[in-house]
Amino acid sequence: MGELRLNELNAETISAANRLTLKPGQEDFLEPETYTHAEQQLDPAGSWPRVILDDDEVVGYIMGAFDEDAPEEFLRAALWRVNVSAKAQGRGVGRFAVAAFADEARKRGYSRATVVWAPGDAGPGAFFESVGFRVIGQTPFGENLGALDL
């Protein structure tokens, strides 16, 4: 693995991000139902889409949002997506992306970051817990609500 870095999502990287191939079964966990229903509340000015590069190859995508006025606390510094290509999984790419999001949240004055995920064997729960998120509740749709104290 080369040097990991983040880049803003742009015309050059969006195609590569859209072509990321996950491991079988992971597609079922890409967008929790809660986020589908809350998406219209997302402030576009506060969205934080980034690609993760290994040298010059796009190996992942992260989407976060920052909105101090969001009506729900869990939407204020929210991690919406972390997608890592199947071939790059297990190499620290996701951990790097979450750490970068947490750093950005700290810089913006937040003391907690949140994430929502659907439970399931192929789901991201074990990953989120391994990077420090702890389950603090469930959404009305039965998904786990995780928090990372910053």
TrEMBL record:
Cited CDD domains: NAT_SF
Chain ranges of the N-acetyltransferase domain: 4-150
Stored Gene3D superfamilies: 3.40.630.30
GO molecular function: acyltransferase activity, transferring groups other than amino-acyl groups
Source taxon at top rank: Bacteria
InterPro entries, per database record: Acyl_CoA_acyltransferase, GNAT_dom
Name under which the protein is recorded: N-acetyltransferase
This protein's encoding gene: speG
